[in-house]
Amino acid sequence: MTDVLRRVGDKWTVLVVVLLGQRPHRFNDLHRGIEAISQRMLTRTLRGLEKDGLVHREVFATTPPSVEYRLTPLGRSLLEPLSGLARWAIAHQPAIAASRRVNNLPPRTG
């Protein structure tokens, strides 16, 4: 179970799955759509998702070859729990931000 949670809990996995949940994407579309992800990390994330059966990679015989990524049915089934988590994060973001501000105060003296 730990390895599955590690995969689906990874921030890059979440972002890739959410984007692919909208429509199939080519690599460069994904790279532009995910701020701060390196090409290497995107490649690793996509390969891991493909290995786990969450993403399908299709190569088109063009010059140069083009590759498109889409969610598999298993990958699509991950969208609902991720959406629930996203709704929770949005609803509780103000409380979490307030707690972070309180807990980052310098220690009291005297």
Estimate the mean pLDDT confidence.
Answer: 89
Output the CATH class name. Answer: Mainly Alpha
Shape: elongated
The CATH superfamily is: Winged helix-like DNA-binding domain superfamily/Winged helix DNA-binding domain
- What is the topology, as strand order, of the major beta sheet? 1-3-2
Rg, alpha carbons? 18 Å
| CATH fold description | Arc Repressor Mutant, subunit A
CATH architecture: Orthogonal Bundle
- Structural class per helix/strand content? alpha+beta
Note the gap between the termini.
49 Å
Q: What is the number of domains? A: 1
Summarize the helix and strand pattern as letters: HHEHHEEHH
Strand content: 5-15%
Helix content: 55-70%
Q: Please give the number of β-strands.
A: 3
Number of helices: 6
The biggest sheet, with number of strands, parallel, antiparallel or mixed sense and barrel status, is: 3 strands, antiparallel
Outline of the structure:
The chain is of the alpha+beta class.
Question: What does this protein look like?
Answer:
The chain has 110 residues and is of the alpha+beta class. It has one domain (2-103): Winged helix-like DNA-binding domain superfamily/Winged helix DNA-binding domain (Arc Repressor Mutant, subunit A). It has 6 helices and 3 strands, in the order ααβααββαα. It has helices at 2-9, 11-22, 27-33, 39-51, 73-77, 79-103; strands at residues 25-26, 55-60, 66-71. The termini are far apart. The mean pLDDT is 89.
